[in-house]
């Protein structure tokens, strides 16, 4: 009988051979060697808990930030999963590929709420670079699409995405016709007519990088009466939603559905919260009918898109 060997063939990793009554088995067993010491993350030189961007250290994944170790927000894995689902959703819809070629990912996640709705007119307030517009043109190709975007950079991308299929108005919307400063964020889609609050900056890892004077108009002054019905008013203006609605009291009677992003915490200075927006729309004859799962921290919803339909 051939004697067993403590090592495998030359050049292979160490292993031991399983002995049997008839000799060694044909398959070596890998020897993992001495147990490895568990890795300990270095002690942070700043507190982990009092930073608003770190709602809880428990379950967070430490990451390096500005020379300091911090705990990643608990929602990060969910955010990554949401992004993966979004990419897969776009990949399954060839009609959204041209926007992606322009570097714009259509907000196909809204299809969970809007796919069975039918609209002849869509007013996209806070169009940014065309994320919702690309989705709207795919979902309702025969509808009239009117987009409002005050920032020139995103507006140029919006024009490239819509390729002449949308009416684009270069203004923000509010309660009066005037010029005002928009607060530009390091992520352009988080820019607002309101200053960014500390909670917004820390939660979404961004900052205010400047201001820009832009025209502000009332929606009533931008849209002529007699909209083709059904009509959708989509609002995503980073805390300025109530001001947009107050400037649209003449148009609202012709609107069949309002799709608006609301906040349950103050992310922008002196912004209206969800209860204010819901109360205004309730008084205007709308009821919340569908909810899109929003941004969460520690299982608490911070922002959410809500579809309101006319009663």
UniProtKB/TrEMBL annotation:
A molecular function GO annotation:
O-methyltransferase activity
List the GO biological process terms: methylation
What InterPro entries does the record point to? FkbM_Methyltransferase, FkbM_mtfrase, SAM-dependent_MTases_sf
Q: Segment Disordered: which positions? A: 1-44
Q: Which SUPFAM superfamilies match?
A: S-adenosyl-L-methionine-dependent methyltransferases
Q: Where is the Methyltransferase FkbM domain?
A: 124-287
Its domain of life reads Bacteria
> What is this protein identified as?
FkbM family methyltransferase
Species assigned in the record: Roseospira marina
């Amino acid at each position: 009988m051939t004697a067993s060997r403590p090592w495998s063939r030359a050049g292979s990793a160490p292993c031991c051979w399983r002995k049997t009554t008839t000799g060694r088995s044909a398959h070596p067993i890998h020897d993992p060697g001495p147990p490895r010491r568990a890795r300990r993350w270095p002690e942070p030189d700043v507190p982990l808990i009092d930073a608003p961007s770190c709602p809880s250290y428990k379950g967070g994944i430490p990451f390096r930030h500005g020379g300091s170790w911090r705990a990643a927000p608990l929602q990060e894995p969910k955010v990554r999963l949401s992004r993966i689902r979004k990419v897969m959703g776009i990949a399954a819809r060839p009609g959204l590929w041209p926007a992606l070629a322009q570097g714009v990912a259509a907000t196909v996640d809204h299809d969970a709420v809007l796919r069975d709705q039918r609209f002849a007119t869509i007013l996209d307030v806070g169009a940014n670079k065309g994320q919702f517009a690309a989705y709207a043109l795919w979902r309702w190709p025969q509808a009239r699409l009117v987009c409002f975007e005050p920032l020139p950079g995103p507006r140029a991308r919006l024009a490239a995405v819509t390729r002449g299929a949308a009416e684009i108005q270069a203004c923000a919307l509010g309660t009066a016709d005037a010029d005002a400063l928009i607060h530009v964020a390091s992520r352009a889609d988080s820019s607002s007519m309101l200053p960014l609050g500390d909670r917004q900056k820390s939660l979404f890892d961004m900052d205010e990088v400047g201001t820009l004077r832009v025209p502000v108009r009332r929606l009533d002054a931008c849209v002529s009466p007699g909209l083709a019905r059904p009509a959708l008013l989509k609002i995503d203006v980073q805390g300025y939603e109530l001001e947009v609605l107050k400037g649209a009291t003449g148009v609202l009677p012709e609107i069949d559905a309002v799709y608006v992003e609301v906040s349950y915490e103050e992310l922008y200075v002196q912004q209206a919260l969800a209860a204010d927006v819901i109360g205004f729309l309730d008084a205007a004859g709308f009821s919340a009918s569908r909810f899109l799962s929003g941004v969460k921290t520690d299982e608490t919803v911070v922002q959410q898109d809500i579809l309101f339909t006319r009663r």
